[in-house]
Amino acid sequence: MKLTFLGAAGEVTGSQHLVETDELRFLLDCGLFQGRRAESDKKNRRFHCEPQKLDAVFLSHAHIDHCGNLPGLYKAGYRGPIYCSPATADIASIMLLDSAHIQEEDAKYMERRLGPDAPASEPLYEKEHAHGAIGLFEPLGSNEWHELSPALSVRFSSAGHVLGSSIVEIDVDDRRGRKRLVFTGDLGRRGKPLLPDPTIVPGCDVLISECTYGNRTHPPQSDIKGELLRILTEAQSNGGRVVIPAFSLGRTQMIVYYLNELWELKLLPEMKVFVDSPLATRLTNVYRDHQDILDEDAQRVLITDDDLFEFEGLMYIRSRHDSMAINSLKEPCVIISASGMCENGRVRHHLKHAVADPNNRIILAGYQAPHTLGRRLQEGHPKVRIFDRELPLRAKVEQISGLSAHGDVEDLKWWFEGLASEGGIGRCFLVHGDPDVAKRFAGIIRDCCDEDPEIPEFGETFEV
Length: 464
Known about the structure:
The chain is α/β, with parallel strands linked by helices. It has helices at 37-45, 64-67, 70-75, 86-114, 127-134, 224-238, 251-264, 278-289, 296-302, 320-326, 347-354, 373-378, 409-421, 435-444; strands spanning 2-7, 16-20, 25-28, 56-58, 82-84, 137-139, 146-149, 152-158, 166-174, 177-183, 204-210, 242-245, 272-276, 314-317, 333-337, 361-364, 383-386, 389-392, 396-399, 425-431, 461-463. It folds into 2 domains: 2-216 and 405-463, 4-Layer Sandwich (Metallo-beta-lactamase, Chain A); 224-399, Rossmann fold. The strands form 4 sheets. It has a 7-stranded mixed β-sheet with strand order 6-5-4-3-2-1-21. Helix 4 (86-114) runs antiparallel to helix 5 (127-134) and helix 4 packs antiparallel against helix 8. 45% of the residues are buried. It is an enzyme of class 3 (hydrolase). GO terms for molecular function: hydrolase activity; RNA endonuclease activity. InterPro entries: Beta_Casp (IPR022712), MBL (IPR050698), Metallo-B-lactamas (IPR001279), RibonucZ/Hydroxyglut_hydro (IPR036866), RMMBL (IPR011108).
C-alpha cells in the first residue's frame, strides 16, 4: 500500500490523502486549502492525484477544508463514488453549493476590483460542478461494514466532531494480504451536547490521524447555559441587544440548543432571538432530519420536546430585507449570525449597529484568528473598522469557552489509548496540525504505536 499526502500535511487545512494498492486508487477527503488568496488559488486549482484514475473518495465530514474541493475534482474529470455518512451527504450538499456561490461571487468581485483591462477572473468551480459532485454521493449507514468490492470494505463510525462526522475504517487487499487503515478525519470532544463521543475503534495496521490541538488543553467547559442566561439578562435589563457571531455548522445549532433548554426551564428572558444566516437555517433542518444520531441527552429531551431547535420567540431569517429590519428594532433581542470570526456575512452589519452602544453585548463563542475583526473585538481595541468605517467599541465583549468542536490533547490521547488497547496501532501518520504541534503530539502518543509516529510533508509518499 502506498500513501501520498496531498493536503493538511504540515498544516491544518485542505485535507486530502491518496491511497494506492495493486488494484485501487482512492482519496481520503478532498478539502479546500484556506489561506492567503494567491497561495490558496494555486493549491486548490491543481490536483496531484490524477482525478480521472481514482476509484473512490471517502469523505470524513462536511467542513469545507475536508469536502470543499470535491466540485473541483469533478471539474477535473472525476466520476466515481463519494462515500460518506448520510448526514454528511446532506450537509455537504448544502456546503458545496454555498461554496460554489462564494467562488462565483468572488470572481465577479475581483473583476470589478481589477478593472475591465485585467484578465478575467475564473472561479475555482461553479454551481454546475457542485451539483455534479453532489450527484456522486453514495451515503452508507454508520456503524456497519459495507463490502464495496472483494478487495475493499469500509465502516463509518462517529467522530463526534460535527453532525455526520466519521472515523473511516477501511479493510483493503494488498499484495501482502489484508490491511486495515483508519482515518480519523477530525475528532471531537468528549461530553459535548448533541453529538456522541468519538468512537473507540479496533486497532489497525495504518492510522492517519489529525492532531490540530495536539499540544493544547481547552479551558474547562464553563457553565454555558448559566453564562448565556447572565449575559442575556443583563442586556435585557439595560435595553440592549446581544450579537453572537457563530459558524453556521455546529456552533449555531449548539447555541440554539442551549437557549432552547433555558426556554424549556422557563428561564430565558423575554427577548426575540434571531438566527440570521440562510446557511445556518438550512443546516439546522439537516439536524432535525437526523435527530436519531444525536447523543443520549438529546434523545431524552426529545421525549418531551419534539424540536430541539425551535422555541417561542425564535425566528430564522432568510431574506436580506428581514435581516436589515432587525437593526431597526428598539427592543432587546439576540442575533446569532455568521461568520464566527466576524470577517464575512451578515454579522458584520449587526456588529456595525451594535459596537458603539455600551448597553449591548457581543458574545464570542469560538477561536478568533489573528488579524480578524473577531480577534480585535476579543482584544478590546478602542476602535474597530467595519465596512471601512472606524467605530468606537463600547459594547461589552464576552467570551464563552467550551464550545470548540475539536478534541484537545487530552481527548486525542484518550482516543489513541483506547485504540491501542483494542488491538494496537501499526504505523501512524499525523496530519492536520502545524509541524511543531505534530512533533510534540508524536512524543505524547509514542507508546500507543508500534513505531515512531511520522509527520508527512506535502507530496510525501510512504510505502506501508
